[in-house]
Write a structure and sequence with these properties.
Pfam families: Acetyltransf_1 (PF00583), Bromodomain (PF00439), PCAF_N (PF06466). This is Histone acetyltransferase. With about 800 residues, the chain is mainly alpha-helical. About 45% of the residues lie in helices and about 5% in strands. The chain is built from 28 helices and six strands. The chain has a six-stranded mixed sheet. Helix 6 (about 175-185) packs antiparallel against helix 7 and helix 24 runs antiparallel to helix 26.
């Protein structure tokens, strides 16, 4: 039954929305429009990424359309239906796009940049490039494609190890320029000017295009080809392809780079027409010529004549940049650098410099202001720090006191006794620790030759196609460390071993797998490697595997990595092992060089092993044994009666008369001893009158000193009765003078010992706030001067007390 509407009421029609409802509807429409645009953009990005990523069903290299070449225009991917079949894997486009949809939006944006670089490199490979450039382009393309297939925008993980990792030469160019500036010994104004010119030179060098090997007829060196490839991969290509990290030339290469390119660089510098460099071009050219002369002298930057602090400060001034350089210069070199110069230098070579984030050898160059790009945090390797030299310690040559004839005779004797010596060692092997080490080494070398054991350096490359055998060895290494180091958590050991920055040297044994390993991390810019874990299975330790494994690591560090310092934190159970391997608690590296880089363990001791670049540590036992044998032969040549055995002296007492004193010459063998054999210096008996004259001169000078008054006479027991209760062996200058007159001092050591005892008695009995202590201290200082002048070769050393007088 239908009801009639009331009179005056409007018919039942939909009510119009109010103002508030109308506003909400418009907002919803705007949001809907925005979401549609975002959805369209997201869909387009997914489809474009599908060209480079795989699909859900199989490990495809990317979507490809049938009968369609890889054309520059790829807009067709946006219009084809999702059901279109891939010509590579026969799966629809939807399978490729759905896999990309699971990638987070931030990672998807980074992958889009990588995809743009991949497409640009493919087009560039179609052009006529030189063979050297095409080779590096192909390597770069493969690494970027691997990154796309992994769907993780971490380019650094996928970079090939073909070219290594920067810096490639030590010291770097920046370090060399800093050393050159420190040698100039400039005034305040000149120092700032030279820093400005050096910055122009470095920026010009950063923008310099290294000629390919094909253009150089005179340079066919393979090292130049490798250097050119590294420069392309790490310094040149990143300017065009923004998805890969860019390194500065001056923080990546060193002396070899400058010497190899100096002729072409000088030409490029002469013809450079930048407006910003016109006024300063002559200064930069003059700086380049003088700097090349400095390089040709091959200065060792660790020599004492170079001021290490000045080198460090100049390097910081060059690294940090132009507007901050005045804050890091030495105080005597500080001045103001004009803004015009900053802008001129920063733009002189066409490269952009970020004045907010100075770059280092491991920092990523900043993008241009109009093309700002985001850089993953992991790409910035390290903050701005000093880049120390990775060169070995400058070992001083050992001078030999042995005449050449003696050395020649010792070598001949060593060869003649070699057979008999080996026979003796066969029956008395345990009596000679050197020979025991050699026999262990021989057994290990035999096992290596037979293929029973071998050594490998492995790491987790984060490559999906990494050799599964190496991953298995890493798992076995984790098992080894957790068993031999029970205090270390399993999760922590696993994380360290599988860290791509860590390397592991493993000892592999046939039918056993990994029986020993050393996990270490190299800090090339700091000049050392850190040993994190070191272990060998208990049932394999007595074979000498642990020592040989450490020696292999030392040789690997010297020959392959040019690292000459090993650091580690050793617990109380490992300090003995590391001491046997040459580690010591005395750290020679500067504290700032390793501070903040090492993993500190509670209750552990920091130890260091400094490596000699000329020693082959895997053959060290043989070297030590041969050196010891040669030294013994030299001693026998110099002292032919050293090993003679004489009869006893009992018969001498029977032959002597009751009251007669036996002369020393009657004892067999005494006449064959020289003065050194009698325990005294030969010079002590060469001229007794000279010794007596010297002692009287020193004694007279001490008596004439104004501080000698407490020591001229013996201490009177009536005046100081307790003195002789504390001082058991009193001595004074008068008593010493009487002994000189009686010729008591047959050797200078006796004279020096009496004077040292006199001063010790003074310090023992008198307080530091007394006049006697003060007089003894100053007279002791005077005697130390006389001792250096009159007894320079004496074995007895004269020193002053640590506590100075208080009055």
């Amino acid at each position: 039954m239908r009801t009639r509407p009331k009179r005056g009421a409007s018919p039942q029609t939909p009510t119009s929305p109010g103002p508030t409802l109308r506003r909400k509807t418009s907002l919803q429409k705007a949001r809907s429009s925005t979401s549609d645009d975002e959805s369209d953009e997201s869909t387009a990005n997914k489809r474009r990424l599908a060209l480079h990523c795989g699909c859900i069903s199989c490990p495809c290299s990317g979507f490809r359309r049938k009968n369609d070449p890889w054309a520059p225009d790829r807009s067709w991917i946006l219009t084809i239906p999702k059901t279109t079949i891939c010509s590579t894997c026969d799966h629809p486009l939807a399978s490729h796009a759905d896999l990309v949809a699971n990638i987070p939006p931030a990672d998807r944006a980074e992958l889009m940049k990588i995809a743009s670089d991949v497409e640009a490199i493919i087009e560039r490979l179609k052009t006529h490039e030189s063979a050297s450039v095409q080779h590096v382009l192909f390597e770069l393309l493969q690494s970027l494609q691997r990154t796309m297939r992994s769907r993780e925008p971490h380019v650094l993980k996928m970079l090939p190890k073909t070219f290594g990792s920067p810096p490639f030469q030590q010291p770097t160019i920046i370090r060399l320029v800093a050393a050159y500036l420190s040698c100039l010994r400039l005034s305040e104004a000149c120092a700032a000017v030279q820093v400005e010119i050096a910055l122009m030179f470095l920026n010009t060098l950063n923008g310099y295009d290294v000629p390919p090997p094909e253009m150089l007829t005179e340079n066919k060196d393979p090292e130049y080809k490798l250097m050119f490839s590294r420069w392309l991969f790490f310094c040149s290509f990143p300017r065009a392809y923004r998805s890969i990290p860019c390194y500065e030339t001056v923080s990546t290469f060193g002396r070899k780079f400058l010497l190899s390119t100096r002729a072409n660089f000088q030409k490029a510098l002469n013809v450079k027409a930048s407006k910003q460099l016109k006024k300063a071009r002559e200064s930069v050219e003059s700086f380049a010529v003088k700097f090349q002369k400095f390089l040709s002298k091959e200065y060792d930057l660790q020599e004492n004549r170079l001021d290490a602090d000045a080198v460090y400060r100049f390097e910081q001034a060059l690294v940090i940049g132009f507007h901050e350089a005045t804050n890091v210069l030495p105080s005597k070199h500080r001045t103001e650098i004009t803004p015009e110069l900053q802008n001129g230098v920063a733009e002189s070579n066409g490269m952009n410099v970020d004045h907010e984030k100075p770059s280092t050898s491991y920092a990523v160059l900043a993008p241009p202001p109009n093309k700002k790009r985001k850089t993953a945090k992991k790409e910035v390797k390290a903050p701005v720090t000093n880049t120390p030299l990775c060169s070995p310690k400058r070992w001083e040559p050992v001078s030999s006191d042995f005449p050449p004839d003696l050395v020649k005779k010792a070598i001949e004797r060593n060869k003649a006794e070699e057979t008999s010596r080996d026979i003796d060692r066969t029956f008395k092997a345990r009596d000679d620790p050197f020979y025991v080490s050699v026999k262990r080494l021989e057994s290990i070398k035999k096992e290596i030759e037979e293929g029973v054991i071998w050594f490998r350096v492995i790491t987790n490359t984060l490559d999906p196609q990494q050799d599964q055998t190496e991953l298995g060895w890493l798992l076995e290494t984790v098992k080894l460390f957790t068993k031999q180091l029970p205090k270390m958590p399993v999760d922590y050991v696993t994380r360290i071993v599988f860290d791509h920055r860590q390397e592991t040297m493993v000892l592999l044994k046939k039918d056993y797998g990994v029986v020993g390993g050393i996990c270490f991390r190299e800090f090339a810019t700091q000049g050392f490697s850190e040993i994190v874990f070191c272990a060998v299975y208990g049932n394999q330790q007595i074979r000498g595997y642990g020592t040989h494994l450490m020696n292999h690591l030392k040789d690997y560090s010297i020959r392959t990595r040019k690292v000459y310092h090993l650091l580690t934190y050793a617990d109380e159970f490992a300090t003995g092992y590391f001491k046997k391997q040459g580690f010591t608690e005395k750290i020679t590296l500067p504290f700032q060089q390793y501070n903040g880089y090492l993993k500190h363990y509670e209750g552990a001791t920091l130890m260091e092993c400094q490596l000699h670049p000329k020693i082959v540590y895997t053959d060290l036992p043989n070297f030590l044994l041969r050196t010891r044998d040669l030294y013994k032969c030299m001693a026998r040549e110099q002292h032919p009666y050293l090993r003679l055995k004489y009869g006893g002296i009992e018969h001498l007492f029977k032959e002597k008369k009751d009251s007669a004193i036996l002369p020393m010459s009657k004892i067999p063998g005494v006449n064959q001893l020289d003065d050194r054999g009698k325990g005294v210096e030969p010079s002590a008996f060469s001229n007794s009158s000279d010794l007596l004259s010297t002692l009287r001169t020193v004694l007279r000078k001490l008596r004439e000193d104004s501080h000698s008054w407490p020591f001229l006479e013996p201490v009177q027991a009536a005046e100081v009765p307790e003195y002789y209760e504390h001082i058991l062996f009193p001595i004074d200058l008068r008593t010493i003078g009487e002994r000189v007159d009686r010729k008591y001092y047959v050797h200078e050591h006796l004279f020096i010992a009496d004077l040292i005892r006199m001063f010790d008695n003074c310090y023992k009995f008198n307080g530091v706030d007394t006049e006697y202590y003060k007089a003894g201290y100053h007279l002791n200082k005077r005697f130390k001067q006389l001792w250096k002048h009159y007894f320079p070769t004496s074995a007895l050393k004269v020193s002053l007390p640590a506590q100075e007088p208080l009055i």
